[in-house]
Amino acid sequence: MARLNLWRWGVYGLAGLYFLVPLAASIVFTVDVPGQGLTFDAYTQIFSTDGFVASLLLSLELALATIVVVLLLMVPATVALRLGSPRLRPVVEVVCQLPLVVPPIALVAGIITVLKWGPEHLSRTPLFQTFVAIQNPDFPVILVLAYVVMALPFVHRALDAGLRAVDVRTLVEAARSCGASWPQALVRAVLPNLRGALLNSSFLTLALVLGEFTVAQLLGFQPFAVWIVNVSGSQAQLSVAVSVLSLLVTWVLLLVLAGFGGRARTTSRG
Hints:
Strand order of the largest sheet: 1-2
Number of strands: 2
Strand content: under 5%
Structural class: mainly alpha
Low-confidence stretches: none
Order of helices and strands: HEEHHHHHHHHHHHH
């Protein structure tokens, strides 16, 4: 047993070094300026740098829209699948895992092809304005649609695990026997028991949108990840400082999510 614990702590230590050493090196790079010593100018200049606030707000707006759309799409689908068509679960699972198989560059190539085909063939129809509207740089809806597809594997896994942990059929039947409609049964009986799964899905989607670069860059938009790469060409220390700050914020959000989920489970048991 002592040897097993020693091996376990050794693995934990190596994993910690694997993550913490690059992070520490990045922090040292941002604060150690040759000839000046330690300085925090890279961090104090973040909020005043041109494009930082706009790109961060754009990414947060895209993340919020993606979370809403993917949950509205997947929650009713997974619940209905579990209640009415359990035999279709393997088919839906394969479809939801396809974005992991298709490279982002192939997804972008398909999107670009559709965006080029639309104006050429629909220029005299009302749909032409739709193709223009979804590519508005202020809020590119086309990115939301792409991110929804990319988030499907993670959201499906999180929701499926949450549904496996509760007796959905009993909850729905109990709500229906009390006079609730199907939407009311879903909102009042099922969703409160899926709080942890919904939080996990939202966090994974948020992390995906904040860190996604390929699709946004190739489509010509500039959310947060693209802005970081563009800044790195002229201000290397600033870009690394922003990356470190975003990583720390992501960790804080993960800890808050874990604490909130644990408190919710404790409350429900009590």
